[in-house]
Amino acid sequence: MNHNFKMVATTMFGLEEVLATELRNLGAQNVEIGVRNVSFLGDKGFMYKANIALRTAIRILKPIKRFKVFDEDDLYKKLMQMDWEREMTVDGTFAIAAVVNSKRFTTNSHYIALKSKDAIADYFRHKYHKRPNVDVLHPDVKIHVHILNDLCTVSLDSSGQSLHKRGYRTATNIAPINEVLAAGLVLLSGYTGDCNFIDPMCGSGTILIEAAMIANNIPANINRKEFGFEHWKDFDEDLFFKIQDVLLKRIRNCHFKIMGFDKAPSAIRKANDNIKSANLSDFIGVHHVNFFNSMKEVFGATTILFNPPYGERLNIDVKEFYKSIGDTLKQGYPDSTVWFITSDLEALKHVGLKTSKRIPIKNADLDCRFVRYDMYAGSRKASKNKAKQVEEKDISEENIED
């Protein structure tokens, strides 16, 4: 019987709460939110499930040892004392990633990674007169060494390659949005597949694909070729396939429209390639349309979510560009909840609409805001007047009854 152990799921700044909710919904225990990470308890099967299903996790780490550490030599000595045969073989391959946040260490993370690699290699060399090889790209075991002040945590990386590499993206534009961030934005917007969805500047289609996977409850990493844990000594293939099958049985069909626009024919081609690769062609339609010449052509409530070009991606008049976003939404997209992400906080002033939500988030190293605008059916004023008339009618009817 599998026992529970502690794991840590890493994520992007601003997505910690979303990831914690995902973990709870998946069945994790003792969920605790940190900065750019969420810790939780689960067994081996849950570790497999978390890797396959989580949308906003970057990697799932399994801590195997914690100890106090005073300097580089102390780190080397304590790593040499660990029982590395439990985790890997002398004929296997490994790689080290290190993060250091401590005044005790004057060296950088790269040096700590090299020192850790030497300790593990020397452990095997002393015992077997040979050592496992380092393979940075496809190691059998990837080890994380994290030092915070005087505490060192050694973890195994169960994911292997970062979980944002879903396996469906065959073509990209310049600066495509990270898949984890795209999924996080869709989840932050509250979209679940219960209304229409439009990305009016869809680029290579990442936001559309993540939205369609959420709407249809398709596991985020079902298209991945492999995970790190598949190379571990205790990998249980039967358990892995059983968990995969259970998750696949939970897929549902979304019956609302999911659409993307882009003015560049090359973007439409790339989006279609990626959508086909993700097996989502039946659920997503992309169209060669300039958003600024468009209007809403679907009936009913609609979520609009996009990542407009900003910073170095925008070689036009920023004020005019953001003003045009506001004008197009006002004139052509009633009965819509609109979300977009930007790092240009000054430019937001030119949209000419009042935000109903502003969520701080990071896109790589950029400080961004994820903003929401509520577009009413008709104007906001008309909507308020209608609500007021209904209220007055209710009051007058109450008076008659009295």
TrEMBL record:
PROSITE patterns found in the cross-reference section: THUMP, UPF0020
Keywords, comma-separated and alphabetical: Methyltransferase, RNA-binding, Transferase
> What region holds the THUMP domain?
46-158
Annotated GO biological processes are: methylation
Residue ranges for the region (Disordered) are 380-402
Gene Ontology terms, MF aspect: methyltransferase activity
Name the SUPFAM superfamilies for this protein: S-adenosyl-L-methionine-dependent methyltransferases, THUMP domain-like
Q: What CDD domains does this protein's entry cite? A: THUMP_AdoMetMT
Q: Which InterPro entries match?
A: RlmKL-like_Mtase, RlmKL-like_Mtase_CS, RlmL_1st, SAM-dependent_MTases_sf, THUMP_dom
Top-level lineage group: Bacteria
Fetch the PANTHER family from UniProt: RIBOSOMAL RNA LARGE SUBUNIT METHYLTRANSFERASE K/L, RIBOSOMAL RNA LARGE SUBUNIT METHYLTRANSFERASE K_L
This one is known as: Class I SAM-dependent RNA methyltransferase
Q: Which species does this protein come from?
A: Lutibacter holmesii
